[in-house]
Design brief:
Layout: H1 2-41, H2 60-68, H3 71-83, H4 91-107, E1 111-115, E2 123-129, E3 138-144, H5 153-156, E4 160-162, E5 165-167, H6 171-190, E6 198-204, H7 215-222, E7 226-230, E8 241-245, E9 247-256, E10 260-261, H8 272-284, E11 294-302, E12 308-309, E13 312-321, H9 327-335, E14 345-354, H10 361-375, E15 383-386, H11 392-397, E16 402-403, E17 410-411, E18 419-421, H12 425-438
Helix pairs in contact: 2-12, 3-6, 6-12, 10-12
Bound molecules: zinc ion.
Zinc ion is lined by residues 144, 173-174, 207, 232.
Length: 439
Amino acid sequence: MESARRPPFFRFHLSVRDVLCALGILFFLGRLQIDSIPNRLSGVKLRPPASNAKPDAQIMPVLFRSLKRREREMVELLGEFVACESPSHEKTGVDRMAVLVAMEWQRRGARVQILPQPKRGDHVRVEAWPGEGVSPGQILVLGHLDTVYPVGTLAKMPFRVSGGRAWGPGTFDMKAGLVLALFAYDVLNSLGLHPRKRVVFLWTSDEEIGSGTSRPVIEREARRRGAVLVLEPSLGREGRLKTSRKGVGHAELIVTGRAAHAGINPQDGVNAVHELALQIARVMKMNDPRRGITVQATVAAGGTASNVVPDHARAEVDIRLARQSDARAIECQLHALRPILKGARLEVQGGVNRPPLERTEAVVELFRRAQSLMSEVGLKLGEAATGGGSDGNFTGALGIPTLDGLGAVGDGAHTPREHVVIRKLPERAALLAGLLATL
Ligand SMILES: [Zn+2]
């Protein structure tokens, strides 16, 4: 049987080889064609294809190759950005970072505005391209200048390059994102590829502490319709994009009781820690992981001494939700909490402050565009959902298609192991440039 079957199989085998051989020749011809693109592009102002059309020439191989040559410069600039410590609460540090970034854009000829803030660091708005006037709306690219690391962190955790990675505070979250944007701008300009829509980059100063001062600015820019691209870190080794993020809330339970001697007259006291414990048990019942709702008491404190019935206790509560429609219900449940022990008082503050970024059709369409761009250079791009919030949550909630996680590939955000993968930097800058050129 074996030998009787061999000839047809052998014939099939040959035909596969033929196909592979033909594919090889086509690939070689394709490469020749791609190689000639840079010459065709240089100095010529190419009009990118209509947003719903397939790009007629693949731009990613050209973008990628140009950016690959600038990998070292990207790392050097990242080192300069990291050397400028910019914790959210230190206005002087964040302002210095704002000036550093503004100068880089100005040097390249972009229109730069510093948006001064009285208490927090200043924001930077860059109008990179005015748009060709043929496509309404604007693309907003978002990133932040602040980090979670206090001044002095650099002494223990200096910027360094080793094992193909660049390490240091804020490398991944998200100073590398600021670098990617500058190089994406460079490469598009050098190839004469001007986006059809107006492109605005907004670098904010307080993302890590809830975006109190930047939220109105972000929302104003996002309302100009178009799309929002967020340069927050990507997810995992393959650099997945974030197509959905949970909404985030924060609440505080403040309990007041009555102090008494724990040994002599405890019956005269009202134990605030006991009351708080009972309330936390109630709060934990609000968890509904199947609906994407998580509620966690994360910080608790109370009491003064071990022999005193405590008259004061408080807890902080972290809230995450997948759907905006659940926000009000959770807030109502929290604010409906009433004291359980006789004589105790309870105050509840806070609520949901970042709405979820939901994976709408428009978000999926943006993601598919990114995926097809990466496939032009033979790279796979995945997507992910995350429980962490970003400024993309605000723009997504306004109904503006938002694609997040477009920043660097790396790991260890907010930890001593924070780093980015250097060889992925040109890839990610090319992806951003590709999106800007074709949206
Ligand atoms: Zn961030």
